[in-house]
Amino acid sequence: MLSLPFRHIKQAGFTILASTAAHLFSPLTIRSVTMRNRVWVPPMCQYSVFNRDGVPTSWHQIHLGGMAVGGAGLIIAEATAVSFDGRITVHDTGIWNDEQRDAWKTIVDFLTEHGAVAGIQLAHAGRKSSVRPDWNFAGAAGPMPESEGGWIPIAPSAIPFDETSTTPREMTVADIQRVTEDFRAATRRSIAAGFQVLEIHAAHGYLLHEFLSPLSNTRTDEYGGSLENRAKFLLDILDVVRAEAGEEIAVFVRFSATDWAEGGWTPEETSIVAGWCAARGADFFDISTGGNYPGVTIPTGPSYQVTFSDQVKHSAHVSTAAVGLITDAEIANEIIVSGQADAVLLGREHMRDPHFALRASAELGIEIDYWPAQYLRSRPRSAVTTPTTAKVAF
Ligand SMILES: Cc1cc2nc3c(=O)[nH]c(=O)nc-3n(C[C@H](O)[C@H](O)[C@H](O)COP(=O)(O)O)c2cc1C
To answer: Which class for 168: exposed (0-12), middle (13-18), buried (19 or more C-beta within 10 A)?
Structure first.
């Protein structure tokens, strides 16, 4: 058993729990947005827009909705393209037109109604766009040719991801400005759809990560070379998103903290750029790794990326979330309690069990008041023994 920061208090014959520090079920407020706990769902592409029009479907509603019913505090919808050519595959969701906005609104309304904060990951896939969906997510499943609805990807430099990938077209400054404006329009539509958290995708080898990493950015203009130059596109986009988002909405950035490759993007650079982003209005940092360089060895294992969240959080003095092979309630709680992250994102565990948060609260013995009424009779016995009338001093 890991130690928990709770004092057990006997009151009126009942044992209740009072926290002495932040823990997995402490609410977290960022700007005007309050997450009911720190059990969050990271973006996960479903490749399920079979009409190829970027409009989310009933699959997305059920997939994300189940996790809202299941008690997650924040649900970040999958990498959602800011433009037609920003999709990884033709089956990705988009937010570049009003039909997509309206379909997202239906989903957001459901998540909100069930107590979860709805977030969206705003994305452009750069040189990793226009590939066939890979249902096993073991890497790109090969280019989608133009004859089948694909396109030539754009990127900071004309360097393909690997030998099987299409060589992208190097972006002009006009392309950079166009994508920046696409992020502006996507921000407006996301807010109109009701999203309260906007996450800029700068991880996993997609467009903004490609600009950050010297392995994929060999430009000689103001967007390449020095760290300041490689970060310029991300900061330009952040400025636009922040301006459109106003004071209430939370803006996150997802980074890959390392390329896991010699000469690549590093945790130190991530911390520096996270600090720059925070100074320009980013509120929170979602710390992942990898995805920009093929064939590297990644030492995966339980919680293997938590150390990067910890490093960025304490070097840049920012708030972070940890992600990657976190599957256990006590370990998730310990990550928060120990101060390595302010929240945890559980991806595949939420797909295995959309009600992970409900289960975790029971396992940790923490009273929550958002067990769905329809499911009350399924509540584990240990959770039921704490009367719902007990005042829990979180
Ligand atoms: C099916 C699937 C789709 C994913 N799609 C995205 C995505 O859209 N955007 C993103 O940043 N990461 C994506 N990821 C990575 C997850 O957000 C998460 O970082 C990763 O799965 C590690 O967390 P886990 O071990 O809890 O699953 C995806 C992962 C999976 C399994």
So the answer is: buried
